[in-house]
Every structure is written in structure tokens, then in C-alpha cells.
Amino acid sequence: MANHYRYLLLMVLCGCHTCLSDDSIQNEMGPLELTENNGILYATCRMRPNSKLTSGMPKIYGQVMFKQEHAGGKLSVVINLHGFPAPDGQHRAIHIHQYGDLSEGCSSTGGHYNPLSVNHPDHPGDFGHFLPLHGKIRQALDSDATLFGGPSVLGRSVVVHAKEDDLGRGGDAGSLLHGNAGERLACCVIGMARPKHWDNFQRKHRRL
């Protein structure tokens, strides 16, 4: 009888170990897209004008694309936007915001995504500001944001602002929150994507 109980206990312990091992394997694997794309994650964000846009402000369209090869690697970002006035001497700030909620236009996206509770411009999605050329912003950059794990920006939003980012040097509270970048012209929600969006753009614009 004692041997029978020991056998049952051994089976229970082995079963628990199997469950834990399966969970560990799943955590290590991450999203299904990691195995489909050889360990690389891709995301995209299709930009649309703010549904609450002030009359007379430019209507911005385009996309922001993301690629990250591993959890500790830099996030590669390509910004491809159009609809700015031409010529346009106004730099436009672009940031990742906390919520992927467009129910009230771009105002419902919340403030800058700030998982480390730091001041602007040190939020991981503070891309800076860009000067449109011929009504377009086409820019490649590396970001400290990530598509992996708890701090992932998947499901959050990208917002294009009307003004230049003061990079936290404005001397007021707003400067340290959002760079006094002004009205939200356009926004979009970051979602997982297939590699073809990134690859097609890179083939078309190899200089980026």
C-alpha cells in the first residue's frame, strides 16, 4: 500500500513538472508570429486624421511600421506620412501614446506612453519632431520602445502633433509631459503585422 501511494505521488509531481515545463516553453516561444517570422516581430499603424480635428488643420494619412529582431534589440521604425501643407516650415512631433482608444478621436489615446515614469523626452516612444518635405514625412529611426513582453507598445497608439516638440526644455509642466507639441492631427493603433508591409516598403525606398 505504501508503494502504491508513493507511485501516485510520483505521478502527480511528474504531471506538475510537465505543466510547468509546457508553460515555460510557451513563455519562451512568445507570440506565434515569432516562429512564423524566424524570431522577428513586425507591427504597423495606419494613420488617419483626428476625427475631432479643428477646421482648417491638415489631414494626415500614411503608416508607421515597426520591426524588432529580438527582445533586447533596438526597435526599427519607419514613418511614412503625407498630407502636410507644401511648402511647410513647421516641424511636427510624433509620439507613442498610452491607449489604443480612438473612440473620441485622438484625445482618447491618453498621454505619452511612459512605463518607467520618467519625464519627456525620455519616454520610449518619444520619436521627436520632423520637418515635412513636399508635404511628406518619410523617416527611418531606432527607438527604445519594444514589441516584446510587458512594456510592449502593441495595442498602443501613435499620434502626430501640429507643432514642434520642445524636447522637455520649455520650462513648464507641459514640457515635461508632452513637449508642448500642440493639437493632435492624426493617430492610429499599433497592431501586429506580416513582414510583407515592411519588406515592400523597404524594396520601394531602399535609401531608408
Q: Which regions have little confidence, pLDDT < 50, spanning 5+ residues?
A: 7-14, 16-29
Beta-strand segment tally: 10
- In the CATH hierarchy, what is the architecture of the largest domain at level 2? Sandwich
Q: Tell me the number of structural domains.
A: 2
Q: So how many helices?
A: 4
- Supply Rg: 22 Å
CATH superfamily of the largest domain: Superoxide dismutase, copper/zinc binding domain
CATH topology of the largest domain: Immunoglobulin-like
Structural class: alpha+beta
User: Biggest sheet, in brief?
Assistant: 9 strands, antiparallel
EC number: 1.15.1.1
GO molecular function: copper ion binding; superoxide dismutase activity
InterPro entries: SOD-like_Cu/Zn_dom_sf, SOD_Cu/Zn_/chaperone, SOD_Cu/Zn_BS, SOD_Cu_Zn_dom
Function: Destroys radicals which are normally produced within the cells and which are toxic to biological systems.
